[in-house]
Structure prediction request, 223 residues.
Amino acid sequence: MILIFNMNNYLDKVTPLSNDLKQKIFDWKQNDFPKYENLYKNLDEKGQQPSTMIISCCDSRVNPNSLFQSEIGAHFIHRNIANLVPENSASSHFYGTSAAIEYAVNYLKVSHVVILGHSKCGGIKACFDFFESDNKNKSFIELWLEILKPTFKSLNKKLGRSEMEKILEKEAILNSLKNLLTYSFVKQRVEQNTLSIHGVWQNLKDASIEYYDNIQGKFVPLE
Prediction:
């Protein structure tokens, strides 16, 4: 027996945009779009040529475009929970992030990749709940955060939780940078000095920024 997939069984659950969302789009088209109309036309005709890829957390409080004061088309932004990069592995199922990295590096030829982490990260907090339990039915979030499990296990458990969370926020950035270099096309361009990779941590509370200084081997304040 052949089963025919009927998409309408799913699409009939989709609802039209709400009035407030439609109004926001109308306002953008009327007030904001005209300011950048020529830029949009140029990007449409010539395609995107971003100089930088930013791998950021999905957190709604994090705004990479605002933080880096970037013009439309300047940055290729990929967001996921806890700004993680999976290790390059044939058994990995995290194709979305890997594909975005491959596209940015091999096709867009970006010159920089920035891992952008932040304070009070919900994904980081979830590690403490997930990894200290014996849950056999893992959620999608828990499976994703497995990327960070070895780093979590290496934390000094004698520290307080809030201190460990802050440490893990930065260690997650370093873990992502390390995993970036497991992709041969990334490693090759880094060694050729045609690609630079960077780690940045943002404190949401006071807008202070720290970046990883490989000479000092630690995160240092941006001053």
Remarks:
- The mean pLDDT is 93.
